[in-house]
């Protein structure tokens, strides 16, 4: 089992009189972790706490095996952070800014300059790298922030709302870059973990393997999207024409669970090794027509809305 | 790797020592500062007095040669005593003050205005190291025009007056060094604190002048009304002047005991540091 990227053990954080994070215990191992939640859920506070910006009130947190309270410098050396808001020095050129950030992360000056150029080319700002950051468009600023987050080759990149304010092509470009970073293989140092904090469910769905949903400072849902997708393929909705009863008995004998509905509709949970081809075969044997067949598609939006639902069913 | 290979790669090479990283902030800030012709021109102007003093020391020692005859030990000015160096430092710190008013306000406020503190502090540097980096910009530049030329003058004088003079007057060199650093640190911390709290650069520069002159005015008013000398605790330049008098063995009238002046300056510096650290945070708390 891979070692956890982030471990939270009864983590609580209080800012002033406001309890922002409440007793969170969780462990994340995925290569890309999506952090979701409504405004004020504590996403940004969690990120700030992991970076050592806010003190932990009680409990503990570890990032890449380092304790957040005692080893925040070690963590920050291994982490790249792309903040949500504008964070740059407007009078500097992009290449100077990125180079300075690389040097502050500990890279020697020559290596920092080389990597600053590479990072800017990588994110697609190669041609604009000698322009002052103050003259950049919003999309370019987002890319420059991504470049400063990855320039020192971090093991973990935290992206806070990376697609905020981007037009659709720019958003697609950002998502593609995140996917590329996620899939970068080869040398061990090239493999990075990504934490993506976003309120755009589609961004998380397109890039993340794991999803953590926060609400009122607590983890209300954790899911492995890959497993969810596999699980969804086990749920089938059918619309039949013909005698349903022998068909139901036959599919149940294969180990499937069934729930007949109105208008010749049938919900099935495929059991064990049952494949869709088996359903076609049984239908042919029982002389039943399959008029419609749908897999359940539990989208991230449904997962999110379910997680947001309190016990009385209201959001 | 060539830049045209647009793939991501990690880094596993050498890492610079953590203690040296604050100097990166100095290096980039200095490069940015000296892009301004006005700044460069004024910095050059700051060396006018040291060159003049150097010529004075040389002329004093070679007056006979320069005048073409014996002069019987006459001197143009007395350059081998503490007063000469004290006057020299007074001139240089005035230049240093103008330079600080020019540089200081632009050091922290742009980072705060652009939210750059987050990207600084998410790297392996602490808030103290960030402040140290910004402080080093002023400290190093001001050093070039205060104690460094003062020590050059001292050693030139020593080379002309001999080993005995140097050994008897080492307190002058020590005085120049300590006096300069007291001034540099006090004024730099004040400038940084103002830069952190006042985002408008011109206002921060004006306030720097205000703190010194209005503080002096308040000090006089308090002393006049309450018939006391304790009002001088509000007058930073007076406090520093008292310490300088002590360092340069000047027996003139001192409004406060030296220990109290030291206490006042240290309390002032601590106050500025506290104000600065209050503002230097990666995130703002929104309540």
Structure description:
The complex is a heterodimer of chains A (315) and B (287). With 315 residues, chain A is α/β, with parallel strands linked by helices. Chain A folds into 2 domains: 165 residues, Rossmann fold (3-Layer(aba) Sandwich); 63 residues, Alpha-Beta Plaits (2-Layer Sandwich). Chain A contains 11 helices and 14 strands. In chain A, the strands form 3 sheets. A 6-stranded mixed β-sheet of chain A has the order 6-7-8-3-9-10, sandwiched between helices. Chain A has a 4-stranded antiparallel β-sheet with strand order 2-1-4-5, covered by helices on one side. Chain A has a 4-stranded antiparallel β-sheet with strand order 12-13-11-14, with helices on one face. In chain A, strand 12 and strand 13 form a beta hairpin. In chain A, helix 3 crosses helix 4 and helix 4 crosses helix 5. Chain B is mostly helical. Chain B has one domain. In chain B, 71% of the residues lie in helices and 0% in strands. Chain B contains 14 helices and no strands. At the A-B interface, helix 2, helix 3, helix 4 and helix 5 of A face helix 1 and helix 7 of B.
Question: Which secondary structure elements does this structure contain, and how are they paired or packed?
Answer:
The complex is a heterodimer of chains A (315) and B (287).
Chain A lengths: L5 E10 L2 E11 L3 E5 L6 H8 L7 E6 L2 E2 L4 H7 E4 L11 H11 L4 H15 L14 H13 L5 E5 L7 H16 L9 E5 L3 H7 L2 E6 L2 E7 H8 L2 E7 L2 H10 L3 E4 L4 E5 L6 H10 L3 E7 L4 H9 L7
Parallel strand pairs in A: 3-8, 3-9, 6-7, 7-8
Antiparallel strand pairs in A: 1-2, 1-4, 4-5, 9-10, 11-13, 11-14, 12-13
Helix pairs in contact in A: 3-4, 4-5
Chain B lengths: L21 H12 L3 H9 L2 H14 L1 H5 L14 H22 L1 H9 L2 H6 L5 H19 L1 H15 L1 H6 L1 H28 L3 H26 L9 H12 L10 H22 L8
Helix pairs in contact in B: 1-8, 3-9, 5-11, 6-11, 8-9, 8-11, 9-11, 11-12, 11-13, 11-14, 13-14
